[in-house]
Amino acid sequence: MTTGTPGVVAPGVAAPVVAAPVFVAPVFVAIDTPDAARAARLAAAVAPHVAGIKLGLEFFVANGPDAVRRVAQGVPLFLDLKLHDIPNTVAGAVRSALAVGARYLTLHASGGPAMLRAAADAARAAPRPPKLLAVTVLTSLAEDDLARIGQIGPARAQVERLALMARAAGCDGAVCSPHETAALRAACGAGFDLVVPGIRPAGSNGGDDQKRVMAPDQAIAAGASYLVIGRPITGAPDPAAAARAIAESLAPGRATP
Ligand code: C5P
């Protein structure tokens, strides 16, 4: 199971006839389940259409690193552990996570500069370091939730502050809501990866816990490097078809400028 370079049109491999080019969407599919067999089925179904899969705490806590490696075999992995602890502990967790072979690894920017720097140093010491992504403000939090946890001021300002702090501490990118993507792209420049959850394709079922959502093409146009999409794909009757439809909606010439 292999994927092409995300966001580019790649020729079909070893096709007996002239195959239609395959567009690999700049999307990591969030596979949030404790069920290893279901995760493996979903990974296999979506892998031809997307940049990779994201496995997070629900899967990792239930099944451990060996199962993560098995499910992500041959598929680029975004390991979403959202690490947040004292610098020494987070650096150790980053070193432990290296064995899993993730392309991306997350940690909470609100852990502060020393924690972020310790994590970046631990990652850089590896032969094939994962890119570290700082989680800014969870997309499930609305402004009134932020006020309740004592954060004064708009989410947008907090996101920008955290992302710039993470960049200065050596992180490779940030996770942000689609609605903060354009401002963050302007603030952080082109070399900083912006990975964006809270994506809902037009017509997909609302009524879940994501509050600050956007359609895939709009988020890419706003400056996202990658999108993270879970339930609109994993909860669809045919996850492969849902992933393919999203890839087609993002294919060159199809996306909204
Ligand atoms: O199913 P859905 O598309 O809402 O999945 C979004 C994924 O992105 C989940 O795995 C969630 O943990 C993750 N995420 C998020 N908001 C953040 C960071 C990560 O929704 N700020």
The bound ligands are:
cytidine-5'-monophosphate
CATH arch. level architecture: Alpha-Beta Barrel
The CATH superfamily turns out to be Aldolase class I
Provide the helix percentage.
25-40%
Overall geometry comes to globular
Classify the oligomer.
single chain
Structural class, by secondary structure, is: alpha/beta
Please tell me the overall pLDDT. Answer: 89
Q: How many discrete domains?
A: 1
Determine the N-to-C terminus distance: 32 Å
Q: How many alpha or pi helices?
A: 10
Poorly predicted runs are 1-5, 8-13
Q: From N to C, what is the helix and strand string? A: EEEHEHEHEHEHHEHEHEHH
Describe the structure.
The chain has 257 residues and is α/β, with parallel strands linked by helices. It has a single domain (25-247), classed as Aldolase class I (TIM Barrel, Alpha-Beta Barrel). The protein has 10 helices and 10 strands. The chain has helices at residues 36-46, 57-71, 87-97, 113-124, 143-148, 155-168, 178-188, 216-221, 231-234, 239-250, and strands at 9-10, 22-23, 25-31, 50-56, 77-83, 104-108, 131-135, 173-175, 193-196, 226-229. Strands 3-4-5-6-7-8-9-10 form an 8-stranded parallel beta barrel, surrounded by 7 helices. Strands 1-2 form a two-stranded antiparallel ribbon. Strand 8 (173-175), helix 7 and strand 9 form a beta-alpha-beta unit. Helix 3 (87-97) runs parallel beside helix 4 and helix 6 (155-168) crosses helix 7 (178-188). The radius of gyration is 18 Å and the shape is globular. It starts with 8 loop residues before the first strand and ends in a 7-residue tail after the last helix. The model is unreliable at 1-5 and 8-13 (pLDDT under 50). Cytidine-5'-monophosphate binds next to strand 10.
